[in-house]
Design brief:
seven-stranded mixed sheet, single chain, mainly beta
Length: 113
């Protein structure tokens, strides 16, 4: 059973960079045929795809956020990380990581001064 767990700062000031980490168990992030994603859901809105990282470390970003988004991985820790820069209150959302059909429980990020 693949399990994912997001972790992050919770509250972030505007203009800062938020870093979120997804820790994966039950599968290697380098295993074939896995696609690792970041998705968010702002309050009262639908799900928004942010980025996908393949097991071969190819990364695809949402065009609308590409200039502010960066995804990286730590194979030793079996983790992958999302960095979102220059955040505004519009980036307030629950952020999820997922692998194929497996989802993390989500972590709340609130952007506020």
């Amino acid at each position: 059973q693949v399990q994912l767990q997001e972790s992050g700062p919770g509250l972030v000031n505007p203009s800062q960079t938020v870093s979120l980490t997804c820790t994966v168990s039950g599968a290697s992030i380098t295993a074939d045929n896995y696609y690792w994603k970041w998705i968010r859901q702002p309050p009262g809105k639908g799900l928004e795809w942010l980025a996908t990282m393949t097991s071969y470390d190819s990364i695809y970003y949402s065009p609308s956020l590409k200039s502010r988004t960066s995804v990286s991985r730590d194979t030793a820790k079996n983790q992958f990380t999302l960095q979102l820069s220059s955040v505004t209150p519009e980036d307030t959302a629950v952020y999820y990581c997922m692998g194929n059909t497996y989802w993390g429980q989500g972590t709340q990020v609130t952007v506020s001064s």
